[in-house]
Protein 1
Amino acid sequence: MEVIKTDIEGVVIIKPKLFEDPRGYFFESFSQREFDEKVRPIVFVQDNESRSSYGVVRGLHYQKPPYTQSKLVRCVRGKVLDVAVDVRKGSPTFGKHVAVELSEENHLQFFIPKGFAHGFAVLSELAVFQYKCDEFYHPEADSGIQLLDEDLGINWHIPWEEAVMSDKDKVRGRLSHMAELDFDYSVDYYSR
């Protein structure tokens, strides 16, 4: 696998080595050994999958400490715009984001470390999205920020009149209005 660095340290795009012939293709979608060597040592404990139609926007979600999650995501059918936003108070890239198009054609994966909010927009008629998490889901730790927060400057690549969001995501607060941030850049959430 090839690891492609982004403008934010720790947030990486993973390009698998694809083997194609007249029968189709094969690639190794995950190797614990290679991931630990090239990205960071981690143990994923939960795999999730969602199916969404065009215009669905999910996010920007994260889990509060002590249940914070890293995610390794990919789109196995269709196409999405995937986004990670740095929400670590004191970080030099606080409020900045990385966006990448993930699709069944490009086979790219996106690693979102702890301390980042995550979301995606469905750009195809239908998308099947898979993600690995290194912490179990804890509903009491569920949190997030507003998808349309203008300060973040995210271009979701869909007209907002066509966007479909959950009621919960529509009312989340803007990052600048959050009185108490859940992440501190000086804390190593991987050593806990």
Protein 2
Amino acid sequence: MERTFSIIKPDAFAAGSAGKILARIYAEGFKVVGMKKLFLSKVEAEGFYAVHAERPFFGELTDFMSSAPCIVMCLEAEGAIKKWRDLMGATNPAEAVEGTLRKEFGASIGENATHGSDAPDTAAFEIGYFFNGLELL
């Protein structure tokens, strides 16, 4: 089994889509081994997205991620990283395949409903940023 990190972002949470996204997560066979509802501070969002600190969208991204509550999760499944990324769809909802979460719930590249780790090392960092070992059941 593999673990990955996911976020139901502030736009999807504010739109009332979190329950529908969670239902899809379970329907696709993921086990939720950790879940928290959070309201990230700007500093917490900056720490999480530090890898993008030099990118032009960093300020906009961290402002957005600290604008409203979100749900962070650790998901587990066979091939969880790829499986979750496939379920999310393309970063740009306009380019996402029908049936993906971003196609259904995303509005733009910046407000695209979900986040997911892109590799095992990224997943390890992201899970560790939000969860300690005792919280993963």
Protein 3
Amino acid sequence: MKRVGIVGLGYVGITLAVALARKGCTVFGCDRAPEVIAALAAGRPHLFEPGIAEGLRQHLNERLHVSGVLPDTPLDAVVLCVSTPVDPATRRPNLEGLRSAAHAVARAVGPDTLVVVRSTVPIGASRTVVLPELLAVWGRARVAMCPERTIQGQALRELEELPQVIGGLDDASGEMAEALFSQLAPRLVRVSSLEAAEAVKLINNCHTDLIYSFGNEVALLAERLSLDPMELIRAANLDYPRPDLARPGFVGGGCLSKDPYILLASAETVGHEPWLIGNARRLNEHLPGHVARRFVELLGQTRGRVDGARVALLGFAYKGWPPTDDMRGSAVVSMLDVLRQAKLTLIGHDFLVAPDVVSRLGVRPCSLEEAFEGSDGALVVTDHPDYARLDVASVLPRMRRPALVYDCWRVLPIAAVRRVEGIRYASIGLG
């Protein structure tokens, strides 16, 4: 398994491409977005992920090739890493990109090439969407489902550390997939079918979404009880031998914001309505709007009015740690309608999200220093570690006091913030 094609060069595809090239494979990556191919062909990553830029410098045009199409040469395997979004209105999975990719693969290679589904799909889609496209051209096929389970910001490391789940159409397909992924991972987890592997990815992510939602449930309850949710969670977790409670916070990203809907759609096809998955997702989607409304309420209490107040939004990516520039499922985007309705003057900062992306959201980009100068409020949305390094004794006095600092992840030193005269501190569930 030394010649590998990868269809789709987003987060999943480009990290796998670099990881395989580093292991000695010759990788042919393709993507239908011309701007993605142009950037990668020039050695410029089109997204932030540690190690990708270095991988391009080391392997581009040698062991790593990028193009708009797969090469006209034999390949041992082709891995489908295309996006499988859900419709924003209906929350139904859109699998046309997956179908189109399988159709293209069927015309580019032959039946002796293993086709691996790496994209997150509804249970059954590898068999009902990908396989028919291959059989229509080849008459027979080798197919495996090997879900991607890495975290953004640590993907290259996790590709070599996490077990790789493998479900084959048949024994031969599974064995070929094992030969491919044994080049990367220290451990392979073989499951019984394509469907079992599809389900593993979905239940992993839905479980994560559910765990985080309970931390948010605690925070919303504590807010009503005038208690500190982090005090409760720390006390509950300390030396207690049951699963830890998660801290409150936003739950976004390309996976957690859509995979619960993909699993819900899978359950619907067999007449089952899950008890927890949908409610956990709805709670996590409720939180950004709740925080925005609470921020406006507290700002009004602090200043007496909110019209025209200058507010700095710190952190536009969906998460701050591990750092990323990914805006999918970003809390800020969900907050903006509430903040605009309050007629706030919004300025914004992020360490990785480009200023033009911030501008397109209707927020004026600013430097970190400018964020506090003359501002009436600051909303720290992500837990990027450089926000924790702020010298609050120096920057907060630049605000127009009385001012509100709402620190969603409690990255700022609370005691130091409260020592600054005229600054009110709040956080999720606290304030």
